[in-house]
Design a protein that fits this description.
Helix 6 packs across helix 12 and helix 7 runs antiparallel to helix 8 (274-309). This protein has three domains: 3-202, Beta Barrel (Hypothetical Protein Pfu-838710-001); 212-365; 371-512. The chain has helices spanning 54-57, 98-103, 105-108, 171-183, 194-202, 221-244, 250-267, 274-309, 320-343, 346-360, 372-395, 401-428, 430-468, 474-505, and strands at 3-13, 34-49, 61-66, 72-78, 83-89, 114-129, 135-148, 155-165. The mean pLDDT is 93. The termini are far apart. The chain is of the alpha+beta class and 512 residues long.
Length: 512
């Protein structure tokens, strides 16, 4: 059974051996009352990676470890700051468990996993205790030997100290401990993890890593666009395991990331060669559509369930809850299946490969070397012009299905302008930040209007099914009317939101 924990730790350089007498007095740290010896452990871990170390390049690691209190298979994925998530499975054969293999797929991109290094550590474990004797953190001194399992038989030795918070400890404690350590000449260890240091010292495969910004003129338009693309590619890579594990909001965030990437590649075709990016955009559109089945249902389900919950009990006639639950179960299962099927396709693996190449070796055009104030503003102006045309047409059309469709198309244009502004914001500053904020408001108002249109269609279908089964359709009709009213409110808010966005676009310094 898969078990997941989070660890927040920092590593420091140490002299050889497990003696900690050289450490400064850590009771100087607020809340730390004493340092208690806890245990000595012999740990033996074999780390797995691809031939070209794709896990190590993304600061993830996969190991099969014996010894200690948590022997087993461990997959470590980076989170923010000093925190990583560790996903564990019990020891099995030497073959990588399929569950963990799938969770590494966005990083390996289908390449074979194999043993790359063996790390053995003699660990001397202590605990930092508060005045009540409760553990605040664990301090371990590791005497490490690393042996390469690649084509050579290189090895390395070193000693390091780890300080790890206990449970949901306060990260400020690590800052306080580090302040004392640094004051006494104790520096951070080399590399973010044992496996990265081991591979760095036993192989040359981590040297000369391709710079994602190679060939990009610093401070240029291309510099900012490539940086934005790289952040999104990294985010998509990180979200893949969360989607596979069905973590909250993961599908939504992955779909939004795919949309941002697709939009950026479209908006900045003057910077990145479309002969390379257009096929990537098509695959991103496909991925977004597949993820959208599950995500759109999540949004609609919560909207309908909330509408029912807010009704007085006397207005809920017939088996409304049961029918809504049955409708939800069927569509939720279908959405989940579509998501997992998409992530298992060769098309998805190819998309990951193309995105990685795009980030490492961006297909720059001549204008990529241009000034952001010219190149990026021109791209923003084009997106703004498309939004203006769609919005004006939508607002000039009477209420009804045609206007609903036009508002939806304008909403898509608002998203593209907003995402283009996100990429340009570091270069262009406050005017673009203000524009993004105003365009987001347009997107939210038009999005709420569209959600109401979709909800009304679903409510009508539920009412028809209820009527056919001899149930009352009163509640479904009532909810349908409420959604129509809500859509009307959003339509009346839209002109003001658009006026504010236009004012932001015309402010001095932007000149769209």
């Amino acid at each position: 059974m898969v078990h997941s924990t989070r660890e927040t730790e920092r590593k420091y350089a140490a002299p050889p051996g497990n003696d900690i007498s050289w450490l400064p007095e850590l009771t100087e740290v607020d809340r730390v009352a004493s340092l208690a010896e806890h245990a000595t452990q012999e740990l033996d871990a074999v780390y797995y990676d691809t031939e070209d170390l794709r896990l190590a390049h993304t600061t993830a690691s996969l190991r099969r470890r014996r010894g200690g209190t948590d022997a087993g298979w461990h997959l470590k994925l980076p989170l923010e700051g000093d925190t990583r998530e560790e996903i564990r499975l019990p020891l099995s054969s030497e073959e990588v468990p399929e569950d963990l293999r799938a969770l590494t797929l966005s990083r390996t991109r289908g390449a074979e996993l194999r043993p790359v290094v063996r790390i053995r550590s003699t660990r001397s474990l202590h605990r930092l205790l508060d005045a009540g004797g409760d553990a605040l953190a664990e301090l371990s001194t590791d005497a490490v030997r690393a042996d390469s399992l690649l084509d050579d038989d290189a090895h390395a030795k070193w000693t390091e100290v780890e300080v790890e918070l206990v449970d949901d400890g306060d990260p400020a404690l690590l800052d306080a401990i580090e302040k004392v350590l640094r004051k006494n000449g104790v520096d951070r260890a080399q590399g973010p993890s044992k496996v990265v240091r081991a591979l760095s010292e036993t192989t040359s495969l981590l040297e000369g890593t391709a710079d994602a910004r190679a060939g990009v003129v610093p401070g240029s338009a291309g510099d900012h666009v490539v940086a934005y693309v790289r952040r999104l590619v990294d985010a998509l890579t990180d979200l893949d395991p969360a989607v596979r594990r069905d973590l909250p909001d993961a599908v939504h965030r992955m779909r939004t990331t795919a949309r941002r990437l697709r939009s950026c590649l479209r908006s900045y075709r003057s910077v990145l060669d479309r002969e390379v990016t257009d096929p990537v955009r098509r695959d991103l559109r496909w991925l977004g559509a597949e993820l959208g089945v599950e995500r759109d249902h999540e949004v609609l389900r919560e909207r309908l369930a909330s509408g029912v919950r807010e009704l007085p009990g006397e207005l809920v006639l017939g088996p409304v809850g049961a029918r809504l639950q049955a409708w939800d179960a069927a569509r939720q299962a279908e959405g989940r299946r579509r998501t997992l099927d998409a992530l298992a396709t060769p098309r998805y693996l190819n998309l990951l490969e193309q995105l990685n190449r795009l980030a490492e070796a961006p297909p720059l055009r001549a204008k990529a070397a241009g000034k952001p104030e010219k190149v990026l503003v021109k791209a923003l102006g084009k997106e703004y012009g498309r939004l203006g045309q769609r919005m004006d047409r939508a607002l000039d059309t009477p209420s009804g299905p045609e206007r609903d469709a036009l508002i939806h198309h304008a909403r898509k244009a608002a998203k593209r302008l907003r995402y283009a502004a996100e990429a340009a914001r570091p270069a262009l500053g406050k005017p673009v930040r203000r524009l993004g904020k105003r365009v987001k408001a347009v997107q939210q108002v038009s999005g709420a209007q569209h959600d109401s249109v979709v909800a009304r269609d679903t409510l009508r279908g539920l009412a028809i099914a209820a009527h056919a089964a001899g149930e009352s359709g009163f509640t479904w009709g009532l909810l349908h009317g409420q959604e129509r009213t809500a859509a009307g409110v959003r339509e009346r808010q839209l002109p003001e939101a658009w006026t504010r966005a236009r004012a932001a676009a015309r402010r001095k310094g932007l000149r769209l």
